[in-house]
Design brief:
Distance between the termini: 29 Å
C-alpha cells in the first residue's frame, strides 16, 4: 500500500521528456504506528504514525550520488468510528508521503 503510494507520486517524473537529468532511485520505506496515550480504561486516545524512507539517489551508471534517511511523523486522536479512523490514517499517510516526496525531489534537484 505505502509502496504504491510512493510509486504514484513519482510516476509523473518517470521518463518525462522535460527532465534534463536522469536518476535511479532506491527507497526502503517503513511505517510505524504507536499508541502515544491511553485513557483511564487503557483504551488508546492518541496515536503516532511515522514513515521513514532510506533514500539512495544514483546516476544512470548506478554510482551513488546521495544517500539519506527522511523521517516524518504525525500525532492524531483516536476516533470512536473505526471507519473514520482508518480514513484519517489514510489521509495522514498520504500527507506524510507528499512531504517525503517533496524532500526527495528537492534533494534530486540540488544535485
Amino acid at each position: 500500500e505505502l509502496n504504491n503510494l510512493f510509486l504514484r507520486k513519482f510516476r509523473y517524473f518517470q521518463k518525462n521528456e522535460e527532465n534534463l537529468r536522469e536518476f535511479n532511485l532506491t527507497l526502503d520505506i517503513n511505517l510505524t504506528k504507536n499508541i502515544i496515550s491511553k485513557n483511564k480504561l487503557g483504551d488508546p486516545e492518541t496515536f503516532n504514525i511515522e514513515i521513514s524512507a532510506n533514500v539512495v539517489i544514483l546516476n544512470t551508471e548506478n554510482d551513488i550520488l546521495k544517500s539519506r534517511t527522511i523521517r516524518k511523523n504525525k500525532n492524531y486522536n483516536n476516533l470512536d468510528n473505526k471507519f473514520d479512523l482508518k480514513q484519517e490514517e489514510n489521509i495522514i499517510k498520504n500527507n506524510i508521503v507528499d512531504e517525503i516526496v517533496d524532500e526527495i525531489l528537492n534533494t534530486m534537484f540540488s544535485i
